[in-house]
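To fix ideas, we quote verbatim a fold written out as tokens:
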Amino acid sequence: MLTRAYQTDNDTWDCFEYEPYCGSTTWFVINIFTTIVALGGNLLTIGAILFSRRLNVMIANQFVFSLAVSDLLVGCSIPYHMAFYIVDHFGSGRLNCLMRFVLISFACSSSICNLLFIATDRYVAIVYPLHYARLITRKSSIVLIVIGWCLSFSIAVVPLLWNDWHRDVKCELVEVIPHNYMNFVVCPMFILIWVMMFLLYSRICREATGHARRMRSAGSSLSISTLKDSKSIQLSNAQVMNGSKNASSVCESNRLMPANHGKKSEVLRK
């Protein structure tokens, strides 16, 4: 029994040592499904924005288009990542190994930059709606998108120049990419962008909550003023009706007064 347990432990250890994907069929299916969803969904988004004039003229959709392109690159990088576990010695070459990390870093960095630009666009539209047309123009949106892609590219290509690759190294992240690059370049950038997005969306939520509160108070004030106005109108109508009745009574009495005066004169003559 001890021998069988020892053999089982050795088999498990060999699996983790020589096969990075234990249960590779499950991971293969998951990666294929993720790739199909990423490619299909983002291609539909890109096509809708390109071929729909109504969607194409909206400046906010320029950021959505850029995000769809970056997510499409993420989907395209998955098969390249899978090739390292399917094709023998695929990561033995320097360029093949480094491009594994360059592609995914470039795609993810551009994707998160586009998410930040979308959050900024929504922030300006909700917090400063009167200045949106002046601040967010087609030219400014293109400039932001270009800056985001250039920043992502400059960060992603760093491992091509700064790496720990050598011929006998295993093509894995912790073996090839320097720790200082991850600790002082990639992680700070992602943390900074996520913090900025959190602050922007927090401000958007506060503004939306305050707007909803003002709408409710304005609605209640409007209903109260409407009720007061209706009561004033009813009172005015009642006064007009009373005035009309009084005027009718005066006219009727004036009409009857000459007849009564004539009858009194005849009685006196008799």
